[in-house]
Amino acid sequence: MASIPDNSTPLATAKTFLAGIKARDKKSMRAGKPLHMAISDVLNRLPLSADILMDELSYDEVEHMDGDFATVWTPYKFYEDGKLHHTGSNNFCLWNSREKGWIITAVQDIARPAEGVTNLTVVGGRDVEV
Length: 130
Description:
Blueprint: H1 10-23, H2 26-29, H3 39-45, E1 54-58, E2 62-66, E3 69-80, E4 83-97, E5 101-113, E6 119-121, E7 127-129
Antiparallel strand pairs: 1-3, 2-3, 3-4, 4-5, 6-7
């Protein structure tokens, strides 16, 4: 009988992934199926040409670095035309290129609607009913 991966906490999930490397077990290394998009797709889906003032204000940021590798955790509040639209957190993974400086290699985020917002248009182009 195959064992069930321990994905009960973020750290347990990461350790399951690392154990999967040692065991050469790709199945145990996969936890869920997130929406994955190239950064160019994310940028193309942002309504930057719209007449909406967008402002994402981060606070209490946390930065971890190990040589040329870093992560940055940023809780945020997102405003549209000065009104709170949603809140959430971003996680940026970065690599320090000697030629270009720090480069974002991955971004993860979660968004929760503000009170009175009945749907969120997700960057992936899907409307999520709340």
